[in-house]
Amino acid sequence: MTENEISSSIIGSALEVHKVLGPGLLESxxxxxxxxxxxxxxxxxxxxxxMPLIFEEVILECGYRIDLLVGK
Length: 72
Prior knowledge:
About 45% of the residues lie in helices and about 30% in strands. The protein has two helices and four strands. A hairpin with a 2-residue loop joins strand 2 (about 55) and strand 3.
């Protein structure tokens, strides 16, 4: 899959989740449902992946997390 195909798949899944759930829920509810839809589509997806901040030569573990990391 190309990056555009992956993006289209994720956007389609996100729209489907929002259409079913509607507005007003917590972000965590949408994230879990989107994770499920992306996983079911066969893409490699990880939740809450830690992401360090690199400043010059120092790696700072300051609590950043990627909501969903998707790959082929």
